[in-house]
Amino acid sequence: MGFYADHVFPRFMDWGMRQVDSLRSETLAGARGAVLEVGFGTGLNLRHYPKAVEKVVALDPLRALEQRVSERIAGARFPVERVSRPADDHLPFDDGSFDCVVTTWTLCSVEEPVAALSEMRRVLRDDGVYLFIEHGRSDDPTTARWQRRLNPLQRRIAGGCRLDRPIDELVASGGFEIRGLDRFVHDPGPRALSEMYRGHAVARPDRAG
Ligand SMILES: C[S@@+](CC[C@H](N)C(=O)[O-])C[C@H]1O[C@@H](n2cnc3c(N)ncnc32)[C@H](O)[C@@H]1O
Predict the structure, then answer these.
(1) Cα of 94 to ligand 1 centre, how many Å?
(2) Distance of alpha carbon 31 from alpha carbon 37, whole angstroms
(3) Domain holding 105: CATH number?
(4) Does 110 sit in the ligand 1 pocket, CB within 6 Å?
(5) How many domains does the chain have?
(6) Are 47 and 73 in contact (CB under 8 A)?
(7) Residue 42 alpha carbon to ligand 1 centre in Å
(8) Which of 88-97, 149-158, 173-182, 198-207 has the lowest mean pLDDT?
(9) 122: closest CA among 32, 209, 33, 30?
């Protein structure tokens, strides 16, 4: 970690992620019970969770802007437990521990997204729900080409973020069945970054073990 990664990027990320705050409440409307939020970032989802949420386990290998994040946690209506580790490793939770798993603009930066999704599926209850909003690959060939070209730069300046991940395919590969998917371009913003996949999914019944 260098000066940029430790001090500049977290502020840039917090500012950038506040630009999409208007999309959070609708994405999280179905959250309930015990929630595992993967890629917690700076805690921007906390004030958008509905009343049915009882606790949030906030998983992220990055810890930054601690004072700002602590204030957001202190303002939450439910307990928040932070876990500093990546999701694409074994998660320290039993099978079926959570009623709900959430990712918001996280799968773009996870090194091994299918491994992470498989772990998320393992720890989700059979009757639980996975809620997500992610940016990813465009269906428009010209935009997709630009996403591919810009990937190396984006990865370097934005914490490993890839612009062109096929989010729905990854979610299915991780063992989820998508029950609803909304694809849209969120304006205003660079088109390469604005191709949204918002949806909900359940664990496919062929859960291993
Ligand atoms: C673009 S930020 C989004 C933050 C937050 N979800 C939001 O909506 O504001 C992506 C987050 O994913 C986290 N992340 C990257 N790799 C991860 C991994 N392997 N497991 C869990 N989180 C990861 C990053 O540290 C970062 O906080």
Answers:
(1) 22
(2) 10
(3) 3.40.50.150
(4) yes
(5) 1
(6) no
(7) 9
(8) 198-207
(9) 209
Report whether residue 92 contacts ligand 1, using a CB cutoff of 6 Å: no
Paired residues of 131 in beta bridges: 102, 200
Q: Is residue 209 a part of any domain in this protein? A: no
Length of the chain: 209
What is the average per-residue pLDDT within 139-165?
Answer: 97
Tell me which residue range forms the domain holding 33: 3-203
pLDDT value of residue 189: 84
Is residue 46 assigned to a domain? yes
The string of DSSP codes covering 125-171 is: EEEEEEEEEEE---SSHHHHHHHHHHHHHHHHHTTT--S---HHHHH
Tell me if 155 is assigned to some domain: yes
At 66 the three-state DSSP class reads helix
Residue minimizing CA distance to atom 8 of ligand 1: 104
Say what the pTM is: 0.97
